[in-house]
Amino acid sequence: MLRGIFTSTWIVLTLVTAAVAAPAPNVVFIYCDDLGYGDLGVYGATGYQTPHLDRLAAEGIRFTRFYTAQPVCSASRVALLTGCYPSRVGIHGALGPQAAIGIHERETTLGELCHARGYATGVFGKWHLGHHRPFLPLQNGFDEYFGLPYSNDMWPYHPEFRGRRGGFPDLPLLEGNEAQIAAVTSEDQRHLTTWYTEHAVDFIERHREQPFFVYLAHSMPHVPLHVSDKFAGHTERGLYGDVIEEIDWSVGQIMSTLARLGLDERTLVMFSSDNGPWLSYGEHAGSAGPLREGKGTCWEGGVREPFVARWPGRIPRGAVCDEPAMTLDILPTVAGLIGAALPEQPIDGLDIWPLISGQAGARSPHEAFYFYFKQNELHAVLSGNWKLYLPHEYRSLPAGPKATGGVPVRYESRTLELPELYDVVADIGETRNVAAEQQQVVERLLTYAERARAELGDTLTKRTGSGFRPPGRVEKSTER
Questions:
Q1: Where in 168-227 does DSSP place strands (E)?
Q2: CA 12 to CA 470: how far, in whole Å?
Q3: Widest CA span in the chain
Q4: Mind giving me the DSSP string for 295-317?
Q5: How far apart are alpha carbons 380 and 445 in whole angstroms?
Q6: Which residue, 376, 373, 383, 379, is CA-closest to 391?
Q7: Residue 7 in 3-state DSSP?
Q8: How far apart are CA 139 and CA 477, in angstroms?
Q9: Which of 13, 30, 99, 280 is the most buried (most CB within 10 A)?
């Protein structure tokens, strides 16, 4: 009996010691801009190839219901990097060159969380959480930064200006806190995907002997679309397809670098996008696949995104997860994997490692997800298979010719007068409103909506949330 107890105790201690001794994983998160749910081969894309992303999914896990917290740039990124709903930390929409706000110094970013555990941290690509110095990556947990401070269309040649100089100032490309290129040109934009990738690869090579966190945030396929000579004219889909194939090449460069350095089995690689396709740009926009609407709406096409993750030996090959999860879950999940303490201030994300690692019977840890847009308007609540849309205005493309040549067509405004309910699993395209038939479900989701309003606020019902934290702010005259 005593021998059995001793043997069992020894086995337990051995397993615990092995778990503690296991090296902390490297983490690579690759994030696209305006990539649609249907824009990867493994999600049904046609007209171009994404072999490296398809391989990432084949050697890891693919989610069918992965969500961004808001269907727009800055808000979605602050959720990823802080684990909070954008409504909690006061960042909505897309911050432009005139914005005086950004991520607050008291918020804990993924970079800071990893840095506290001895990680080298680098961000390469689009930042978009404030362009003034206090808001830039080096002041928020990252050792290195190379990229654009905001979207690549926020420059004097916005597509709506049809080739003429417009109302935006020159667009800088930053290295650290300083402008490496003061006024980005169209020729420069053609190299962005390559430059970001080269910087990320170089960072991995230089930090191979210590744990690292790489945040590779591509500016593409946000308009204006640009692609290098390596991929120009390669696909049946035209310029958009060329751009996606170059992003796929970038993923391949990261994967081959990890393999060459013997880091595959020590590295978790994840890929997703900030929001759905900007449909008003027609042939220069991506595809939401079978989903309804796109960027700038809380319908599934605006907020449901591709998500694939790979970690050989820790994530089963070819797995598929149908449970819902959200970008704000990445921070607490990474925290759990690297043994980091969660931020002292409340966050909204939860650890979804059981889902990512394909554990049998794993379920989403969330009772509900909340979708806000514009200036803190609560538009929708998701719980399980059910998604309830609350009364609000939203944009939609009118019937008629689609945009060509990179110049957008105008949206029309539509109004949802009464709550609508959809089973987003059985009815992925949200074609059948079943609110009248499922009153109990409607009432339950309305209860969740009230919880969100109390905690996060809702301008549509004139509510200020008790959990709201204001963003950082500088005087508008402050220089970057």
A1: 173-175, 178-181, 212-217
A2: 47
A3: 85
A4: TTS-SHHHHEEEEEEE-TTTS-T
A5: 9
A6: 379
A7: helix
A8: 20
A9: 30
Question: Which alpha helices (DSSP H) does 309-456 contain, by range?
Answer: 330-338, 353-356, 439-456
Using DSSP's 3-state secondary structure scheme, residue 202 falls into helix
C-alpha span between 182 and 151 (Å, rounded) = 15
The chain-wide mean pLDDT, for the chain, equals 94
DSSP state of 388: E
270 and 309 Cβ atoms separated by less than 8 Å = yes
CA-closest candidate to residue 427, choices 292, 297, 294: 292
Find all residues with CB under 8 Å of 133, minimum gap 6, and list them.
Answer: 139, 177, 480
Candidates 34, 30, 52, 33; CA nearest to 42 is 52
Over residues 109-133, the pLDDT tens digits come to: 999 999 999 999 999 999 999 999 9
Q: Are 258 and 204 in contact (CB under 8 A)?
A: yes
SS3 content of the chain, % helix, strand, coil (to 5): 30, 20, 50
**For residue 210, what are the contacts with CB-CB under 8 A and spacing of at least 6?**
118, 119, 120
Taking only Cα atoms into account, the Rg of the chain, rounded to an integer number of angstroms, comes to: 22
Q: Examine the pLDDT at 20 and tell me if it is beyond 80.
A: no
How far is it, in rounded angstroms, from Cα 30 to Cα 195?
14
Nearest of 208, 166, 171 to residue 192 by alpha carbon? 171
Structure token digits, residue 197: 């990738």
What region does 104 belong to: left with phi over 0, alpha with psi -120 to 50, or beta? Answer: beta
Q: How many CB atoms lie within 10 A of CB 9?
A: 10
Residue 228 corresponds to which tokens in the numbers above? 């290098």
The catalytic residues are 73, 128
Global pTM exceeds 0.90: yes
